[in-house]
Amino acid sequence: MPAPLLRAIDIHKSYDQTEVLKGIDLEVYQGQVVALIGSSGSGKTTFLRCVNLLEEYQQGEIDLDGQPIGYRMANGRRQRLSERAVSAQRARIGFVFQSFNLFPHMTAEQNVMLGLTKVRGMASGEARERARSWLDRVGLSQRRDHYPYQLSGGQQQRVAIARAVAMEPRLVLFDEVTSALDPELVAEVLGVMQDLAKSGMTMIVVSHEMLFVRDVADRVVFMDGGRIVQEGPPAQVFKNPESERLRAFLGRFHGLFGA
Question: Structure pTM?
């Protein structure tokens, strides 16, 4: 069996005296879609932010392609890598946020091009060609010259997805990317994510869209209180919850997982 693309080992994260992650172990293989589910405050977003080095964690190790990210061991102690090294590693992990995070003074095309030219060092012509290709892929070829304020929330989120995947990352993290959208706009964003999953992109998705999780995820990971309580294929996790906490969580979606 191939080695996992991402391996998290015993990740602990605290804010002051509050421990948010209490020993997370997770492996993600190339081409997999792994969905993190659980109530607000269970540690899902914090874990994603640790994977992308947006948060420092106090204990454990996260490896990407077999290489530790964020830290190295020196004289028996963990040392954070230089910001330049961290930035290079972060460029290999795409992150799509709940709040879009587009630059308001840039067009859709310019938003997608920025990382390609500034981080990848790509020539502007090549970057523009790739940006247009990805904007077309997410259904926005006619909106590439529009500014964020001229786009709907769903369109802005699709630009954000195009921006992340245009960098050709090894792994893409999606953090509740539909939760800020009006209900009628959710389907267009989930459709783009489903297309990416079918293309073989490796994804970790935090979502409360349980039908999407059921239909698209290879594995579901239920987190509660900073720990992984149960994980497995969607059918197994949804139909055979092993804990009262998971049963209570899935009870909010009563009738969704019937035969």
Answer: 0.93
